[in-house]
Write a structure and sequence with these properties.
About 15% of the residues lie in helices and about 55% in strands. By secondary structure, the protein is of the alpha+beta class.
């Protein structure tokens, strides 16, 4: 079995709908420029309130992906 070496980066997903939608949007965007995504971890959740209502959700994610061999 090959060893798996991962790299971890931090991204922030945003949504006007929900925390879950912010996660989905963040991961979807990351897949456009990163290969071999394997997992994510939510490290922070926050939002913006205006006129007494939640207007915007923000989720900070750690995203892990498998590093490729150069061989």
């Amino acid at each position: 079995m090959d060893d798996h070496i991962y790299r971890v980066i931090e991204i922030v997903g945003t949504s006007e709908k929900s925390i879950e939608d912010a996660v989905q949007k963040g991961v979807a965007r990351a897949t456009k420029t990163l290969r071999n995504l394997r997992w994510f971890e939510i490290t922070r959740q926050s939002g913006h309130i205006a006129n007494g209502k939640v207007e915007h959700f923000q989720v900070t994610l750690k995203v892990g992906f498998t590093m490729e061999d150069n061989a």
